[in-house]
Design brief:
13% strand, alpha/beta, 7-stranded parallel sheet, 6-stranded parallel sheet, 415 residues
Length: 415
C-alpha cells in the first residue's frame, strides 16, 4: 500500500457543537490511520465541547476570520502568492467568479486561500473541504495556487444555497465529492458530466458512543397532569428546523392532553421562538435548555417519550440533509416525528419506524403528536424498529471505510 499523504482539512469553524457528524468523521479517519491537520476559517463560538473533540489529535490552524483583523498576515500571503506558479491561474479564476458573486465574502475566501498557501501547515499533500460552499471556495483557490489536489464532503445547506454554476465548477475541479443524502447526491450528479466523481455516503453514527438503551420506556399517555408526556427536540433555532411550525402544532393539541417539552440547542431565533411560545400560551410547558454537551443530550434521549423535528425548506433554499439528531434519537429506541423533507425519509418510514408528515403543516404534526402521546405501545413499537434500522444501516464505520477507500484509490493512482 502506498504511504498515506498528509491531509489539510478545511472547515468553516472548529469545534462546533452542531457538527458532531464532522468531528466523528475526523476521529474515524484518524483511527483509520490518516494524518490530518484541521484548517478552520472561524474561531469557535460555542462555550462547550463534545467528548469527541477532545479525542481528535489533529492540530488546528485558524485562518484570518476577517481580513482586516490580520492585515499583515494577509499581505504576506499576497506577496508570497506572486511567486507561485499558480498565481496567474488563480487570478484568472477569481476575476471570472467575481462578476457572478460581487461580495466581500468572495475577497475573504481569496485572502484566506493566500494565507493558507503561504503558511501551508505541516507540509500538506492533499486538501479536503467540509462543505461545498465557502470552505470549498478557499480549498479550491488554494488548490489552483499550489497545484495540490482537493476533494470535498458536501452536506445540506451548502448544496441547496449554492448557485448551480458554483457547484458545477467545483465538481469539475475536485477529484471527487461525497454527500450524505440521496437528494443531494442526485442534485450534484445532475450538475456535472463527471458522474463517477460524486458519491453517496451516509454519515452514520458512532454506535459505541450511542449504545443500546435497555431501560424501560414510560407508559405516559398524557392523561396525568402530575406526570405529563415528555417531548424532546434538539436543533438550532433557525428557519429550516421549523420550530415555529412545531409551536403552532403544540398549540393545537387538545387542552386535556398533558405534555411538556425540552428544547436543546442555540440559534439566532431563540428569543423570537420564546415570544411565540408565550403568545400561544405554551411558555410554562416548554424548557429552553440551550446548547448541551453530547452526554447530556444522550441522557435526554433516554428519558424522553418522543422526539420531534419539524424540518422544512427555508425561504433561501436551505434545508437539512438527514439531521444527525434523528439518527441519534432513533438509536435510543425513541420514536421520532418529523417531515418528509430531504433525507428524512431515508431514515424514517411513516408508521413503520417513525411518524412522518408534510412540512409546513401544524395540523398534521399536531395529529401525529397526539397519536404518539396517547399510545405508549405504538411509541415502543416504532422506537424499537427505528433502533433496528439505525444499527443495521447507519453505522458510521461504513462511511469511514468508504472515505478511506476513496482516499486510498487516489494514493494508488499517484504511485
Amino acid at each position: 500500500m502506498p504511504p498515506r499523504r498528509k491531509i489539510l482539512v478545511v472547515l468553516k469553524g472548529y469545534p462546533r457543537l452542531s457538527e458532531t457528524f464532522i468531528a466523528q468523521e475526523l476521529l474515524g479517519l484518524e483511527k483509520a490511520g490518516f494524518d490530518l491537520t484541521l484548517i478552520s476559517m472561524r474561531r469557535p463560538t460555542d462555550k462547550k465541547r463534545h467528548p469527541v473533540h477532545d479525542e481528535i489529535k489533529a492540530r488546528v490552524v485558524y485562518l484570518p476570520e476577517y481580513l482586516h483583523e490580520e492585515p499583515i498576515r494577509v499581505l504576506k500571503g499576497l506577496f508570497a502568492g506572486f511567486s507561485k506558479p499558480g498565481f496567474g491561474a488563480l487570478m484568472k479564476r477569481f476575476f471570472a467568479d467575481l462578476p457572478r458573486d460581487i461580495s466581500r465574502n468572495r475577497f475573504r475566501r481569496l485572502g484566506q486561500a493566500l494565507v493558507l498557501a503561504r503558511e501551508w501547515p505541516d507540509n500538506g499533500e492533499w486538501l479536503h473541504a467540509h462543505f461545498i460552499h465557502t470552505p470549498a471556495s478557499v480549498t479550491e483557490y488554494a488548490s489552483v495556487l499550489t497545484g495540490t489536489p482537493w476533494t470535498c464532503s458536501a452536506h445540506a445547506k451548502d448544496i441547496w444555497t449554492s448557485p448551480d454554476w458554483d457547484l458545477g465548477q467545483k465538481l469539475g475541479s475536485a477529484r471527487w465529492a461525497v454527500t450524505c443524502t440521496r437528494s443531494g447526491y442526485e442534485h450534484m450528479k445532475a450538475l456535472t458530466g463527471r458522474k463517477d466523481a460524486v458519491h453517496l455516503s451516509y454519515h452514520g453514527l458512532d454506535l459505541a458512543r450511542f449504545g443500546h438503551f435497555a431501560g424501560e420506556r414510560s407508559n405516559r399517555d398524557g392523561s396525568d397532569p402530575a406526570d405529563p408526556a415528555f417531548i424532546l427536540s434538539v436543533g438550532r433555532a433557525v428557519e429550516k428546523k421549523g420550530y415555529d411550525v412545531l409551536l403552532r402544532a403544540l398549540a393545537l393539541l387538545p387542552k386535556e392532553l398533558n405534555w411538556r417539552m425540552d428544547h436543546i440547542g442555540g440559534g439566532e431565533e431563540l428569543s423570537k421562538l420564546k415570544k411565540l411560545a408565550a403568545e400561544l400560551g405554551l411558555a410554562e410547558r416548554i424548557t429552553w435548555k440551550g446548547a448541551l454537551a453530547q452526554e447530556d443530550v444522550l441522557d435526554h434521549y433516554r428519558r424522553a417519550d418522543l422526539f420531534t423535528l419539524a424540518c422544512r425548506i427555508a425561504a433561501n433554499g436551505d434545508r437539512d440533509g438527514l439531521p444527525n439528531v434523528l439518527v441519534e434519537a432513533s438509536s435510543q429506541r425513541l420514536v421520532c416525528l418529523s417531515t418528509d423533507v430531504s433525507g428524512v425519509p431515508e431514515l424514517l418510514s411513516d408508521g413503520e419506524n417513525g411518524l412522518v408528515v408534510p412540512p409546513e403543516d401544524p395540523s398534521a404534526l399536531a395529529k401525529a403528536l397526539e397519536t404518539a402521546i396517547r399510545n405508549p405501545d405504538l411509541r415502543k413499537r416504532l422506537g424499537d424498529a427505528a433502533e433496528e434500522r439505525v444499527r443495521g444501516h447507519f453505522d458510521y464505520h461504513s462511511s469511514i471505510r468508504q472515505l478511506s477507500g476513496l482516499f486510498e484509490a487516489e494514493w494508488q493512482k499517484a504511485s
